[in-house]
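Marked as duplicate of an earlier ticket. Keeping the data here for the record.
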Amino acid sequence: MRIGVFGGTFNPVHIGHIRGAISVYETFNLDKIILVPTGIPPHKKNDVIDAAYRYKMIQLAVCGLDFFEVSRIEIDSNQINYTIDTISKLKNIYKDDDMFFMVGTDAFFYLNLWKDYKELTKLVPFILMKRPEFDTTPIVDKYKEWLNFFDVEGKFEYNIKSRTVFIYAPPAFDISSSMVRDRIKKGKTIRYLVPEKVEEFIDRKGLYRK
């Protein structure tokens, strides 16, 4: 089985997250995508809401899409979560499967600040999800002595390779979680920025209003 692991705070999950993940699923011929909401982030921000809410919103967002799985592996650990630990646990569960780790450009630029990042890149290849207009040259220049970068230009079964980063631009959605939170605080609509069930959940629970 070919698996994509997509981690993040998902604070909240939005259409860009889901459509981007679906595009990766189709382009890389994956069998499953595991969404991993962070329990206690290493660099926790004050505006990150309770993990139980974020987990529920992801479940609502992917309801009916059988190739998605939402994992509680970090939430249930009840401790600060580091990517290398999560990937190691997942690889132990899916021992005979191929695994990719999906990440955005902002997070990847600071890869050198991640715990045991060089060991992590040996464990799993990365799919670097970027906006079409984003210039990845600074990222490539920063890590080219350690990592091998490949531009993804079409649908294919890209092979698992150590210390490899596949640069991929999913269809562009000019949406971010911070944008969604800001609109809620200002009393603006978030219709079509998040899945309908997620919008209803946020409104019912009164999330992100302060």
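See parent ticket for discussion. The chain is about 35% helix and 15% strand.
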